[in-house]
Design a protein that fits this description.
With 124 residues, this protein is mainly β. The chain has no helices and 11 strands. It is elongated.
């Protein structure tokens, strides 16, 4: 998997809210998130920030539309995000990330030597 490391000032910070489970009144397991208190916060420009990557898929078209655009301050993405974290981030599918004030849900995480490839989807 080839990735590109973006400059530190382009890396986006985030707040990570891990998925928790509890049982409801019927004894069924349900997910919930403590959106008031993040489990982890990373500032913009930090080494642990997310390096946005072009969203790729193995389908014959080769690409998914992500709504990403290059701006003076770096890349801004909307909708489906794909990024690389070079730190020791521990995240599981269905954890929630708050990025630039928008909530995204982690759909997949691939662990590679030295980094993790994340694919997130915007929650509406």
């Amino acid at each position: 998997m080839l990735t590109r490391q973006t400059p530190l000032e382009w890396r986006r910070g985030y707040a990570l809210h891990r998925r928790r489970t509890k049982t409801d009144g019927y004894g069924e397991t349900m997910s919930y998130y403590d959106m008031e208190t993040p489990d982890l916060e990373v500032a913009d420009g930090a080494a642990e920030g997310i390096c946005w990557q072009d969203v790729r898929t193995w389908q014959t078209g080769g690409e998914m539309t992500s709504g990403s655009a290059v701006r003076e301050s770096g890349e801004a993405s909307l909708g489906v995000l794909q990024g690389v974290c070079y730190g020791a981030l521990e995240a599981e599918p269905f954890d929630r990330f708050v990025i630039d004030g928008k909530v995204y849900e982690l759909r997949t995480v691939q662990q590679w030597l030295g980094y993790r490839l994340l694919q997130l989807q915007r929650m509406f």
